[in-house]
Amino acid sequence: MGIKILVLAALAAAVSAQGPTAASARNPGLAFPYASCIRPLSTSHYSASPVVSTTVTPAGERTCWTLRFREEQCTKPDATINGKDAKCCEQAFHKFEMNIKYECIPNNTFGRPFPATATFKGVPTKGVFSRRFQTSTGVTIFVSDLDTMGKAVEGTQFCLTLNKDSPCPTLATLIPEFPKWSVALWDPNHNCCPVSNGTNPSPPPSKPPSPRKAPRNPSPPRKPSPPRSPRNPSPPRKPPSPRKPPSPRKSPPSPRTPANPMMPPPPAPPLSPNMPPPPSGCETCYDFRVLPTGGRPVLNWFDDKAHCDRLNATWYELFVTNPSVAPFINGFTVFESCSGTSARICGSYKTDDAATTIGSDEDLWNGLLIGAFGGIDQCPSELAGYTLVVRGTVDTCGFASSISSCTFPNPPFPNCGPCNNNTLSTPFSLNQIVTTRAASRTSTYYCVKVETQTPVPNKNALYPNYCAKMSELYKVEFWLSWERRWDIKSIAIIDEESATPRQIAATWSPKADNTLRVTPLRWGKAYVQDSAPKICFEVLNSVGTIFDLTPRPEESKLWFSLFDENQRCCPTTTTIPNA
């Protein structure tokens, strides 16, 4: 009974320690995860265990969180947000998000993707991305499309491996208040974000010494110790009788069959100083996978024999016959399987050192990944929207991990004269996360928030100083299908100054341009900062989402451009799919 009480007390302490610190903030956008969402664990079944494990792998430092599902945790199932019943205790787990430092984002990348890889339930995920929030100093990294429902979450592990060459290659350098960390487990509707807090111990050595065990092959070789006497000893073992001397041509008795069965076998002969140590080495496999992202369907890439042949040819050229690899491997010549979404090949390394060196050669594995799928400068068009992965199956043997996200080419948008399309060229920007709210019983608003930022003039771009001083946002254009224009029921502006959405007329460009213009706006920086306006598209639930109304719905992105009145500045980018 005492043990049960201690376990329950520890459970209660863990839940208390992970309390909704962000939920009580006066302005929820200023606290992690820097969004308007329901944070307390008491409103959800999901949480992350407060203690994590950190290990060092050839690919970099890896930290794993154990995720929990506990029915007793949800004591406030009726929590609401913006007057809406979010039903957080009935939602799936969709996205893992973590608080990090701003300086951990590599220069000129905006953290998309972030220099890290992740696995969930032992399977590589889509890319790791970061996002920065204009209204605070907050920066996070997140992984989406983890969609798992209810009890299936219990005991699963989410693991994050930080690239060794990243600005913050360890958890200690990545998170703002090490050893304290904070993570949010989001639902698909982005209403529920239960926040878990915990601490992380110092990373253990990759191979901790064991003081109680002697090494297998000590040097110098140990001398044999005299045999111990058995419990019921027979008369002491005597040398062979002189009347029956052993023949010098015969071998001594085998140690497995001693002369006196009651006596223990003699000790093994000592190792000769000239005898080489037993060979080291290890066995492993490598998996090549094609994973869908952003709502793309499963792609059975390796059901096509030509794709398996390309993979085999690339592997043979870059790995099996590579002079830096070939002398140190056995096997790795025949793919055990090549079908559906994956292919696997197995073999062994002759030494542990060789396995570590080859497994950590990023250029080798990146080259294998690119060549195996037929890409040179970019992925084949049929792989757009998919993530390509090659990954080792044994962490301690030649572990390698290379991930490439195949993106769609930029669309023919915007359709205007030369302008500065740098995303940081003006003081205005659009948040890359599309949020939703009910418009009616049969329709939904899909909204993008207009924000301000500190411009970073690019001297090699057009009108750098003019765009940096842009005082007014005149219009925003969206790349949407002209053929589907009637599926957008209305366009509205929603801000903090008005209780109800303000309708605004739609202006469509010619059919070939596939462009919807929201104009004129004439918004200054003061209005944007004070009112946090959102541009919202009302879409009937029966026709899909706003992403289904783009010219490229399989991409699950919404492209947009912001303009000044003279159309010299046109910062262009896209939303993040399924963030």
Walkthrough of the structure:
The protein has 3 domains: 46-199; 282-406, Alpha-Beta Plaits; 428-577, Sandwich (Immunoglobulin-like), CATH 2.60.40. The chain is 12% helix and 28% strand. It has 7 helices and 31 strands. The protein has helices spanning 2-17, 171-174, 305-320, 352-359, 362-372, 464-468, 525-531, and strands at 46-48, 53-57, 60-69, 80-81, 84-85, 95-100, 116-120, 123-124, 129-132, 139-143, 157-162, 180-186, 195-199, 282-292, 329-339, 342-349, 386-392, 401-405, 428-430, 435-438, 443-452, 472-473, 475-479, 488-494, 502-504, 507-508, 515-518, 523-524, 534-540, 559-563, 572-574. Strands 1, 2, 3, 7, 8 and 11 form a 6-stranded antiparallel β-sheet that branches. Strands 19, 20, 21, 24, 25 and 29 form a 6-stranded antiparallel β-sheet that branches. A 5-stranded antiparallel β-sheet has the order 9-10-6-12-13, with no helix packed on it. It starts with a helix and ends in a 5-residue tail after the last strand.
Q: Tell me about the biggest sheet?
A: 6 strands, antiparallel
What's the number of structural domains? Answer: 3
Number of helices: 7
Q: For the residues shown, what is the average pLDDT? A: 80
* First and last CA, distance: 45 Å
Q: Which parts are unreliable, with pLDDT below 50 for 5 consecutive residues or more?
A: 1-29, 202-225, 227-236, 241-279
- Fraction in helix: 10-25%
Strand content: 25-35%
Give the oligomeric state.
Answer: single chain
Our Rg estimate from Cα atoms comes to 31 Å
Number of strands: 31
Q: Specify the overall morphology.
A: globular
Which structural class is indicated by helix and strand composition? alpha+beta
Keywords: Signal
Protein name: Pherophorin domain-containing protein
InterPro entries: Pherophorin (IPR024616)
Organism: Edaphochlamys debaryana
